[in-house]
Amino acid sequence: MAKFLAELLGCTLPDKGTPPLFECRSQPHLRMRPSSKQRPAFFGTLSKERAVLDNRLDTMPQTPPFTGQLNTGSYNKNLYQTKEEGYPGLYYNDNNLVSGSLEALIHHLVPTVDYYPDRTYIFTFLLSSRLFIHPYELMSKVCHLCTEQQRLGDPQADKMRVRKIAPKILQLLTEWTETFPYDFRDERMMRSLKELTHRLASGDEIYRKAVSQMSQGLIRRLTVLSQYEEALGKINATAAERLTVLKAKPQAAIQRDLLSICNDPFTVAQQLTHIELERLSYIGPEEFVQAFVQKDPLDNDKNCFSDHKKASNLEAYVDWFNRLSYLVATEICMPGKKKHRARVIEFFIDVARECFNIGNFNSLMAIISGMNMSPVSRLKKTWSKVKTAKFDILEHQMDPSSNFYNYRTALRGATQRSITANSSREKIVIPFFSLLIKDIYFLNEGCANRLQNGHINFEKFWELAKQVSEFMTWKKVECPFEKDRKILQYLLTAPVFTEDALYLASYESEGPENNMEKDRWKSLRSTLLSRV
């Protein structure tokens, strides 16, 4: 894949003690505004290597990031008066863009000599446009507008005009390739990109270098993605092999437990955070849209988006949550002695508390979910030996009542701590991912994509972009903790019991309490133990 992309683009392949959140939950959510001298790309992704090119963009409007760092939820046209805003088909309310035809919104995306689109608009439109048009089709239209309207294909075109428009088009392409690199796994996208960048690079050495840097950066990101997916496949294959052994010999297959590898809750919480941040980092923003994408009723292509409904990295992250929940339940149900089971429960309570203090809410909720699974919660004799005060506090923090009010308050505290962080550890915010997906799902379902006149409801997509952009900030944090590969290997590949195996182990540890449980116990013994 990487070699093919390199050939397609015509470039060479590059070589290969956190303060607890309890203390800040009641503080207000701070919002930051970058100074007028700062000129970051969307989410701060522009590299220093493009400084020479950036010097030619001094007149371009610069836009601060979204949620948590932006006080307005949409683009105010009075901020950036340009000729392009007179294009028919865009509608504003109180000077905010609220709707428009697809063609008008595409025109609004394309730079001109006198105009560069607001960067929040670029992200919002590139994120949401895939609900109405394939990314490769959008790229084709952008190339056409740049080539025809800006006369990039005309050898007689004014060189000064080309020099004015070229850096702006390169800026747009760079933001696209950096923020939505997965779009360019499509061969059609790469061809359009190469065609347009070839025209831009033909006029000036500076642009040739900028195109080369952009292309190599894109290839590097796609290469890393391919390597990650390959590694994930190997991890899943190893876990599947061990699960096969477990199904064949449920009692003999597991010879180790997590406590025998590491009995320090903080260290385990750190390793869980490693896994969380790595998997978060590979989720593309477009996956939140593609996970819920439905056919646009105004699109006549019956197969539209059938090949873009993939959200594999998002799905892999959800699978990880489920695995961790079942791993916790397995570790608790596996020991034969009540005292040992109680010790394991208390250990995971401490791990969950450390996750909370780190800001790792996803692992926290996975652990709580595992301990609340029926095969675990029914172990009354075991729980009677557990000091549950700390667990009660954690459950209160993740209480689903009032739409997870307590959790959302803690999340705001973690977000504030991240914004004002003095160390890399304080920057960590890992949301309860299933709830984030639920919020985006209901936003998508609760608001129409189009208005009655057929125009795209852009107010909806401002809000969608705000939610996704905050996630983009969280996922860019690098884990500051040292890796322990032995612990990581266990967390990722140790075999876990199925639901039936969990019930059987639970009944074997503490016998059935009623006839229904007795019948189920007998059935499970006859089906599972007969394999031994």
Written description of the protein model:
This protein is mainly alpha-helical and 532 residues long. It folds into two domains: 97-219, Up-down Bundle (Son of sevenless (SoS) protein, Chain S, domain 1), CATH 1.20.870; 230-293 and 310-530, Ras guanine-nucleotide exchange factors catalytic domain (Son of Sevenless (SoS) protein, Chain S, domain 2). Helix content is 58%, strand content 2%. It is built from 23 helices and three strands. It has helices at 2-9, 51-54, 102-109, 119-128, 135-149, 159-179, 187-201, 205-248, 258-261, 265-281, 286-290, 312-333, 338-358, 361-371, 374-377, 380-383, 389-397, 401-419, 433-446, 458-475, 485-493, 499-509, 515-528, and strands at residues 90-93, 96-100, 456-457. A three-stranded antiparallel beta sheet has the order 1-2-3. Strand 1 and strand 2 form a beta hairpin. Helix 1 (2-9) packs antiparallel against helix 8. The longest helix has 44 residues, at 205-248. The two termini are 44 Å apart. Residues 1-85 and 295-309 have low confidence and may be disordered. GO terms for molecular function: guanyl-nucleotide exchange factor activity. It comes from Oreochromis niloticus (Nile tilapia). Keywords: Guanine-nucleotide releasing factor. Residues 93-223 form the N-terminal Ras-GEF domain. Pfam families: RasGEF (PF00617), RasGEF_N (PF00618).
